[in-house]
Specification:
Blueprint: E1 2-8, E2 12-19, E3 28-33, H1 35-49, E4 52-57, H2 64-74, E5 79-81, H3 83-86, H4 93-98, E6 102-103, E7 116-121, H5 126-134, E8 143-147, H6 159-172, H7 177-180, H8 192-200, E9 205-209, H9 211-219, E10 229-234, E11 238-245, E12 248-256, H10 262-273, H11 279-284, E13 289-292, E14 303-307, H12 312-315, H13 324-327, E15 330-332, H14 342-347
Parallel strand pairs: 1-8, 4-5, 4-7, 5-6, 8-9, 10-14, 14-15
Antiparallel strand pairs: 1-2, 2-3, 10-11, 11-12, 12-13
Helix pairs in contact: 1-2
Length: 359
């Protein structure tokens, strides 16, 4: 079986082609700019050219692309968008209009600009991936596993609060891998970004998951992982941590990486593991929050697994700032020898020999 695992992040999209007939370590991999970074580049090109832009497609990740769109508007240039594409920017179309973006139909019949750049929004660009693989004589597989960060559609509530309501529900349901993974027909209606990716892959077998849990389950594939385990994924956009017991996520924490220092993260991780950190404390700092279903005495934590492209946040701490309580059991996770692919490997958990029963 050949499976293409795609972990869509804020800075990169990490693509892994798994072949069950080969050693996992021999999987083909590509770490490429994330879709939102690519879209941001296209928007900036239009801004430099003084052109209006017309956003089409579906719901995808924001961040860099949304910032580029705001800057385009700040330059006095026009932005048009279909209703679905506009939801990439905000879940409430009235708020999108208040930004100065004009909502039009899919055909763009109401775009009055004579010279505009049409930009298609999508998290999964099958054409580009297939083209890249074909350059090396590799055929596209028919099975996909995709991770995107989906806050859930919440037009009248903070998406940070809503996101943690989703996590609470899944943790309360058991917190196992299967609780976080969806097939095409299983994706809840409020996970609009995930649904958009599902539509892109509608004719192919696929499984979908949020990027956070995907990275957590991927880090557990490192041979140094021992449970109960504190797993931390320090991503380009977000830092997510989880307490994992018996292959179940029993507590979750998420913050914006740009808001953290190594010392601050270390302090919050220790308090999170002890069950002392509150949702309000993290949320009031601009983070997403935390949820603890089962607290753990940190002395019971057997390993601390750190992964993610911004793991230097902890690695670069001064030695005298490192708390031995955390560092004596800390490992920098690299499942199958590749730190950047933790999320992609996590997506493959059900397909890896002997791993489904564990997770």
């Amino acid at each position: 079986m050949r499976i293409l695992a795609i972990d869509v992040g804020t800075g990169t999209q990490d693509i892994l082609l798994y072949d069950s007939e080969k050693e996992v370590e021999n999987s083909l991999v590509m770490v490429m700019p994330s879709p939102t970074v690519i879209i941001a580049g296209k928007v900036r090109e239009a801004t430099s050219a003084g052109k209006a832009i017309f956003l089409k497609g579906g719901v995808m990740g924001g961040g860099p692309s949304s910032r580029a769109i705001r800057e385009h508007l700040n330059q006095g240039l026009e932005v048009y968008a279909t209703p679905k594409a506009a939801l990439t920017i905000k879940d409430d179309l009235d708020r999108v209009r208040e930004m100065g973006i004009k909502i039009v139909d899919d055909a763009g019949e109401k775009v009055p600009a004579e010279d505009y750049e049409e930009i298609f929004l999508q998290d999964i660009d099958l054409k580009s991936i297939e083209s890249a693989l074909s350059c090396f004589g590799v055929e596209m597989p028919e099975v996909f596993a995709v991770a995107v960060q989906d806050h859930g559609n919440s037009p009248h509530e903070s998406n940070r609060i809503y996101r943690f309501k989703i996590f609470e529900r899944l943790i309360d349901a058991g917190g196992k891998f299967s609780d976080f993974a969806y097939g095409h027909k299983d994706i809840p209606a409020d996970l609009t970004r995930m649904i958009s990716s599902s539509k892109t892959l509608c004719n192919r077998e696929a499984v979908f998951m949020d990027t956070g849990p995907a990275a957590i389950f991927g880090a557990l594939l490192d041979s140094a992982a021992r449970q109960p385990c504190l797993v931390v994924n320090i991503g380009n956009g977000h830092t997510l941590a989880a307490i994992v017991k018996d292959h179940r996520i029993v507590a979750l924490y998420e913050h914006h990486t740009s808001s953290l220092t190594g010392e601050g993260l270390q302090e919050q991780l220790l308090r999170f593991a002890e069950g002392e950190l509150t949702f309000d404390e993290v949320f009031d700092q601009g983070g997403h929050g935390c949820y603890t279903r089962e607290s753990t005495d940190f002395d019971q934590v057997k390993s601390v697994m750190i992964t993610g492209p911004r793991r230097s946040l902890l690695m670069d701490m001064e030695e005298d700032s490192k708390d031995s309580k955390l560092w004596d059991r800390l490992h920098f996770a690299a499942p199958f020898g590749n730190m950047m692919l933790s999320g992609s490997y996590g997506l493959l958990t059900p397909y890896l020999p002997g791993k489904l029963d564990e997770q």
